[in-house]
Amino acid sequence: MANTVSALKRVRMTERKTEVNRTRKTRLRHQIRAMRRLLDAKDAKGAAEIVPKTFSLVDRAAKWGIIKKNTAARYKSRLTLRLRKLTANA
User: Fold this and answer.
1) Nearest to 83 by CA among 50, 58, 48
2) What residue segments make up the domains of the chain, in order of their start?
3) 5-89 maps to which CATH number?
4) Within its chain, how far is the Cα of 27 from the centroid?
5) Cα 39 to Cα 80: distance, rounded to the nearest angstrom
6) What is the pTM of this model?
7) pLDDT tens-digit profile of 1-53?
8) Residue 68 burial (CB < 10 Å; 0-12/13-18/19+)?
């Protein structure tokens, strides 16, 4: 256990940041999951409506350090490809 005042403060700060990061990551995963479900259901209109919100969350998560920049780019790329394929078939 931490003994110094500064170490105790760091423990408190880490606990707060961990909770914030956990919430943000959960929100990101739920948003991506919702988009994937719409794509699986072949709902091109619904998926196109939530693209801005999803990409915004992905970009912010990368900015915050929740996910890496390349991971964010990969998510966006794959979701975009699936949406384009869906709209081309419709």
Assistant:
1) 48
2) 5-89
3) 1.20.58.110
4) 7
5) 10
6) 0.87
7) 778 999 999 999 999 999 999 999 999 999 999 999 999 999 999 999 999 99
8) exposed
